[in-house]
Amino acid sequence: MTPDEYVEAVLELADRIPPGRVMSYGALADALAERSGRASARLVGAIMARHGGGAPWHRVVNAGGGLPPRLAREARARWLAEGTPLRGSGVDMRSAAWSPGQGV
């Protein structure tokens, strides 16, 4: 898989995350690892930062269920609108985590 194809795969998978659910950067990387040969949460984060403006970026979070402070306010509003389970200042990962095999 070329770097451009990997960017497309990351964004396509982010688009599949249902409203009210999330994936961590690492889980998204792991879901694509076998076919891409890559398994880097940091790379997924960089792709979301550079190319994720049109994707549901608020559904891809860090392992603790949060996003960078500069995005937190807008993300929280989106999470609330979607009914995403929250815990503290982030997402409740036990309740909200999604994987591609789960469906909606």
UniProtKB/TrEMBL annotation:
Methylated-DNA-[protein]-cysteine S-methyltransferase DNA binding domain segment(s): 8-80
Any matching Pfam family: DNA_binding_1
Alphabetical list of InterPro entries matching this protein: ATL_DNA_repair, MethylDNA_cys_MeTrfase_DNA-bd, MethylDNA_cys_MeTrfase_DNAb, WH-like_DNA-bd_sf
Superkingdom of origin: Bacteria
UniProt keyword DNA damage present: yes
Keyword terms: DNA damage
Keyword DNA damage among UniProt keywords: yes
PANTHER family per the UniProt record, alphabetical: 6-O-METHYLGUANINE DNA METHYLTRANSFERASE, ALKYLTRANSFERASE-LIKE PROTEIN 1
Protein name, per record: Methylated-DNA-[protein]-cysteine S-methyltransferase DNA binding domain-containing protein
